[in-house]
Amino acid sequence: MSRTILLTGGAGFIGCNLVQWIIQETPHRVVNVDKLTYAGQPASLAPVSENPRHQFEQIDIIDAQKIEGLLRKHQPDWIMHLAAETHVDRSIDQPDDFIQTNVVGTYNLLKQSRHYFDQMDTAKKSHFRFHHVSTDEVYGSLCGDGTAFTETTPYDPRSPYSASKAAADHLVRAWHETYKLPIMITNSSNNYGPYQFPEKLIPVVILKAIFGQPIPIYGTGENVRDWLYVTDHARALMKVIEHGEIGETYNIGGDNQQTNIELVRSVCQILDARCPIASNERLTTEQRAGLVSYSGLITRVGDRPGHDFRYATDATKIKNALGWEPLESSAAGLEKTVDWYLANEDWWQPLIQYDEPHQRQDTNGT
């Protein structure tokens, strides 16, 4: 059955990939709500921009009146809430934006959704869902003992970003317990793939490398992350909204733990094959002469304040309950990602002139 989905943050990295997947793989209609901050790019929606089942609305989720009008106008069956500020370094430098969007914005969306839900007839209430999309960073940092985050791991956020997402998670649960809003929450590991803004780790590595610039690595590079290909995440989100249990949380992980330095070297190795230094016209003659591999550009920089050592996400619950598992292998996913960036300079070229303080890599990926 076709549903109308109100999806927030649909011009961002995970959002645009999810919107494309829904339009291409399901019969559902998407009302795509995005403020269009620096990380929300209309160009990311080009593959579905002319599709009649996709409608874009440029709205800030903290605008209560506009959100109320949007719900009244489109009468969605499901809400998928992805809109968020996500860059950890930016949250350290400018936490106000994170509190406003991630906490106040989520509160406003919950408040308006509750009023909308309370006015529904019984039949529509029976299939309404509010799906809050969160991060595994709310659980804090793991040591190197082989443990992994589960849905019952206590929250221990360590950056303004993860604290703001943890606050949003708690608000969503409170609206379920107090007001009986039918919610579900997902917490995913690091995402990677096409359309990721070029301040995140993998795009930073690709673009720094092909221009012959130093590739920054925080500290020792031994911090560990679990990497999830974004299309696998999109499939998981749809599994949850279509078949998940109300009030439940599902962790979504890629079962793909790597240290940052291992990941960066893998990307450099793919670039060595896909964009050989000897034929890379973006490099000067001097740069080509001085490089054997793009990995020679790796440069250690001072560590980030409060840098979490390790994330690992146990996705057993969603695998057993909903039959989801990641399909993309690490090697294939990285190759697809590198190939996409090499083939889509028109998309990323206008975005690489962002301000200098944030040209550091965000190792958290989402």
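The above is record 1. Record 2 follows with the same two-line structure.
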Amino acid sequence: MINRLYSLEGIWKGSGTARFPTIETIEYFEELEFRFTGDDESMRFEQRSWHIINNQKGKPLHFESGFIIAGSDGSFELLNAQNSSRVEVLKCIDLKIENFKTELTFESKYFGNDERMIKTQREYFINGNKLSFRMCMATNNTPQFQEHLRSVLEKASA
């Protein structure tokens, strides 16, 4: 079942933009890696980002890692832990696979260690060797659901 997500597997690299009403808008470098874990129904992921300084990687910005777990009913959940100490569980609410294109959307169902959070959504759009990522969120201070992150990555290795 987890093999339905084969188009995610590999290392993806590129850049993105972080914005939200409570932060300064910044550009960042990003690396995203997905790997199957073996015979079980899970895929490991790691997402890392750095400030851009003189068009190069600068100070680390945000790191998170976790798993995508396939349920026996065909569903998927994304579990992650972040260097900010937040933990999050998201459920897959949409998966479309057609030709060489994959669209995958996760929506939050649980947060730990971050009372500010109301809702998040992560969208992955894969077309061949290009991955577009978008994350939207709502917090107690900014309850209107809106875009926080957007990045465009290319497959660096399988």
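The mean pLDDT is 95.
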